[in-house]
Design a protein that fits this description.
With 288 residues, the chain is an alpha/beta fold. The chain folds into two domains: 85 residues, Rossmann fold; 130 residues, Rossmann fold (3-Layer(aba) Sandwich), CATH 3.40.50.720. Helices cover 42% and strands 17% of the residues. The protein contains ten helices and eleven strands. The strands form three sheets. Strands 1-11-8-7-5-6 form a six-stranded parallel sheet. Strands 3-2-4 form a three-stranded parallel sheet, sandwiched between helices. Helix 1 runs parallel beside helix 10 and helix 6 packs across helix 10. It starts with a strand and ends with a helix. The structure holds guanine. The site of guanine (GUN) has 7 residues, from strand 4.
């Protein structure tokens, strides 16, 4: 049976290190590291994320600035809020919660964030820095996945890694990070021919496709390390109830894999912890 990779415990440890760093930053500069989160509209899942971010930011001894704007806010008004945060010396990191309402151009909004406050790592400048190996901000979820992999495996050099999914938020930055760790990287996606055959070559499988329980145990190389980024809500066994599952069929995969992240409690808790870690890095860089 596979070992379970406990992302919840790892994230708690990371937040403890962030809290210590926040105390050090305040002693040095006389202010707390600050994270601003902008939420437009009332999407229920986004409201939950933003509330958790705010709580964890405060729990780590950092300053939290929340900007909640109505769904009918104009793009111009949102851009003005972002520009104010760009020049606010109390704000080290800026996160605009996605998705934005459909009347807004997400790329234009992200492009307005100062790249040195872009703790999500979504700005093209940070995408380019990651691709060229320059210091910058890396998207939180894939960075959290690499932290879990290195904690479990040590050096990743020379390992065969398959990333399933090619999104800008997870798949593509994940592939860049694994390449930077000297893995041999394959990016698979919905048009990939014979996905099970591709996955069977991999020492490391990162599943980020958003398809419930798609990756089966008999696709895996025995002993592979499996990172499941999926969070899918599916009907539960009882009428009217739902349950969370990943993109990996945990029951069959955990019989073949060497180690695997569970859903929930695997990758999920890492994202906010890495966001706070990125904010500490931003604070130190911006305080120069
Ligand atoms: N929506 C879902 N995940 C994320 C994330 O990591 N960052 C932002 N800004 N929005 C999201």
């Amino acid at each position: 049976m596979a070992q379970i990779i406990d992302g919840k415990a790892f994230a708690e440890g990371l937040r403890a290190r962030v809290a210590t760093a926040a105390v050090g930053f305040e002693a040095k500069t006389g202010r707390k590291p600050g994270l601003a989160v902008v939420l437009v509209g009332e999407d229920p899942a986004s409201q939950v994320y933003v509330r958790n971010k705010g709580k964890q930011t405060l729990a780590c001894g950092m300053a939290s600035f929340e900007h909640k704007l109505p769904a009918d806010t104009s793009e111009e008004e949102l851009l003005a809020v972002v520009e104010r945060l760009n020049t606010d010396p109390a704000v080290d990191g800026i996160l605009v919660q996605l998705p934005l309402p459909s009347h807004m151009n997400e790329q234009k909004v992200i492009a307005t964030i100062n790249p040195d406050k872009d703790v999500d790592g979504f700005h093209v400048v940070n995408v380019g820095r990651l691709a060229t190996g320059l210091p910058g901000f890396v998207p939180c979820t894939p960075l959290g996945c690499v932290m879990l992999l290195k904690d479990r495996l040590g050096s990743l050099s020379g390992l065969d890694a398959v990333v399933i999914g090619r999104s800008n938020i997870v798949g593509k930055p994940m592939a860049q990070l694994l390449l930077a760790e000297s893995c041999t990287v394959t990016v698979a996606h919905s048009r990939t021919r014979d996905l099970p055959e591709v996955v069977r070559r991999a020492d490391i499988v990162v599943a980020a496709v958003g398809r419930p329980e798609m990756v089966k145990g008999d696709w895996l190389k025995p002993g592979a390390t499996v990172i499941d980024v999926g969070i899918n809500r599916v009907p539960g066994s009882e009428e009217g109830k739902t349950r969370l599952v990943g993109d990996v069929d945990f029951a069959s995969a955990s019989e073949v894999a060497g180690a695997i992240t569970p859903v929930p409690g695997g990758v999920g808790p890492m994202t906010i912890a890495v966001l706070l870690r990125n904010t500490i890095v931003a604070a130190h860089r911006n305080a120069g």
